Every structure is written in C-alpha cells, then in structure tokens.
Fold this protein.
Amino acid sequence: MTVDFQRVEALVFDMFGTVVDWRQSVAAEVAARLADYVPALDAHDFADRWRAEYQPSMERVRRGDRPFVRLDVLHRENLITVLEQFGTDPDSIPEHVLNQVNLAWHRLDPWPDAVAGLTRLKDRFIIAPLSNANVRLALDVAKRAGLPWDAVLGAEVAGAYKPDPAAYLNTVEILGLEPPQVAMVAAHNGDLEAAGELGLRTVFVRRPTEHGPDQTSDLDPSGTWDVVAEDFEDLADQLD
Amino acid sequence: MTVDFQRVEALVFDMFGTVVDWRQSVAAEVAARLADYVPALDAHDFADRWRAEYQPSMERVRRGDRPFVRLDVLHRENLITVLEQFGTDPDSIPEHVLNQVNLAWHRLDPWPDAVAGLTRLKDRFIIAPLSNANVRLALDVAKRAGLPWDAVLGAEVAGAYKPDPAAYLNTVEILGLEPPQVAMVAAHNGDLEAAGELGLRTVFVRRPTEHGPDQTSDLDPSGTWDVVAEDFEDLADQLD
C-alpha cells in the first residue's frame, strides 16, 4: 500500500452505484410490476429517468425549500413524475402496486465483489454506508444482500443530504472521529470532492457500468484521490 | 408460541443489562486501570456507583436542563463524580488513563446467550439496539462481541433518552413501522412500561445478576408483557 491509511479507522460508503447496481435492479422490478400499466415500457429508460429526478428532489431539501424528508418519500414523489413523463396516469395504477414499485429501491442487488470485499475490510475498519438512502432502505438492502455493515449511517441520521457538508461532518462526529480518520468510498468524483474538501480521505472505486454500457461519467478519477480501486476486493488488497 | 407476533417486523433491544453484562465488564476494566490511583478500590462498588449516576445525568437532558449530549460525555462527567466519591482527586490521574477507563463502556461483554440468540432472531426480524448508548459505543460493543445488528439505533439517532417517548417513537418511525410492528426487548420493567404505553409490543428477558448476586430489582415481570423469556435463546424458541 502506497497511501498512509494508518490513521483511518472508518470507511464510509456511497451506496447507489458504489455498493449496489441500482439500474439493473430497478429496471427488473419496473419491468415485472409496471408492464401491465405502462404501454411500450422501456424499463431501463424508466430507471434512468427515475434516477434523474433524484438530485433535483434532494436539491429542494438542501436549498431549504422544504424540510428534510427521507429518500423513500422523494422516490415516491419522483415515481409519479416519471409515470407522467411516460404518459401514464398514476391514478390508473393501484396504490399497492405503486408502493411495491417504490420498494424496488429496498431490493437492490450488490455488485459481485461487494459482500466479499466489505467482509475483508470489516476486519480492520469500521464500515458503514454514508448514503442518501434512509435507514430502512439501506437496512433492507443490507439484510437482503448480506452487506456486513457495522452501523447504518447516512443522510437520515445526519439530517442532511450529500453533498451538504453536514452529511459528512455529522457522520464523522457520530463516529467519534476526526475527518482524516474517515475515508469516503465512492464511484462518483463529486462525492469525493465534497468529502475531500472537508478533510476526509478519499477512495474512488470504478463502476463503469452503473449507468449502463454507454456510461460517459465517472469513468476515471477526476481528482488526486488517496486510493483508486477497481472494486472492493482490489480495495481490500490495497489497504491490506 | 402463544403470543401473536405475526405483525411484528422488528425487535429493538435495550443494551446495558439486557444484551451485555455491564457490571462485570466495567468492574474488570476499573480494577485493571484504576488500582494504582484509587486506594482500597472495590471495583464492583465503583461500577455500581458509576452506573448510579447514569439516570440522574440523563434526567437533566430529558428535563431540558441541558441540550442532548451523547452518553460518552455523560459517562466521562460521571467518572469524575465517582472518583471524588472515592476520595480520589481526578487531576491526579493522567488524562489518557481517564479516557481509557471511560472506554470501558465500549468493551462490554455480552451475556453468554446473546450472540447465538440474536443470530437466530435475525433470520425472521429486523434486530437493532434501542439503547441510551451513543452510536459509536454500541457499534464498538457489537464489533468486539460479534452482535449481528441490522442497524444501530437508539438515543443518539432518535435525539432523546429513554424513557422519553420520542426515543421509542422516533425509532419506530425511522424503521418505517407502526408501534405494534415493533417489540421492545428489555430486562427492565420501566423500559417496557414506557414502550408498552406507546403501543409497542413488550418482551421481558430475565437478567437476575445484572446488578450482582444480591440483585433485588427487575427479578420478575411487573406488567402483563407479551413475552417473558429466560434469555435470548429462549426468546428465539418462543418466537419460532
């Protein structure tokens, strides 16, 4: 290992895209549950558009236009928006179907290296999600997938959505640590920029198909991050 | 199983005394670390007196006399109080020794049945501490002991100390559940009284030596709790 991680006690992880493959998982659930209601449904396009509403909906909270609400609430509102984009009247779909579709985000599959890599990293570090997911969402994903978190942290516990500095700093404080004792692990340069500016260590993990085979963003590190890893097994190798 | 737990999705656990044997663990650390500084030290008496300051110190937060501070802070203040009760000038003890003694609460041993029982209960239920411990304390105990929590909840996440109703109700809300879908598991009748009044299900677990061989309190259930169990293995048997 070339980077000095001697002081680092905790690794905190972005979840959507970094730990789990949200796009394939959501598309599969959408295809299974909405095909009867949405004509000529392209489930991957639906998943992409649903995800596209994610940042704008959190931005209204970050700007203070509305009080903090958990991500489940934003996902549910955004589902209505996307159905309307697809020309479907949301009222034509039974409430219990919409609620089940919304829970697709609680049933995301991990990348193939995630459980094995996290299990190795847990031997040496505290590991926890620092995700914009609410606690129950992250908990359900972890319980279903077997992600061995030491705690479930993130936006709901911190009371702020990344990249609001409070999301990172409140999490560091809850861990009883200083920023250089915590490393942010993410497949997104923007997340690492925000964390790095606050003094956290930074780990970029390549997830070149998060957005599908034609992904153009976050293919490479854009900053001088402390570690660049191909996946979580590679990260465990490098920090060994 | 005689009690209907069909609707229950989550079991939330009191920690000190219910999951871990705080008295033996703290006494062992106190004996090892403070014998050089406290003449004629009775480590069990020291542990008992330290614990006796626990409720009064939280009560100042519950009454609103001071803002919420995590339990690590209260433990550290109470340590000074108890040293003075033992006639020891806290300033005569190096800061790093006091800090290590305070971390005794992060190194509590579980009762012998705890890990096996929780592991079985985790198959069917979400399991999480609903403790007055702060997140890092509960996390350190769990990591060292191998407690397989699905999440670390409790006073710090809820922003209130039990038996303040907010401690229970905020935890239920974070879990995305209604009170009857959550069962409070505790060795203390007072904890179950508070939880039961709010509509949570109640599980009393007997821990007759939490306070040592001469324990007089909480030897038996004082209310009509939904389940009474001898330990966590017995609880897993009853809920099977």
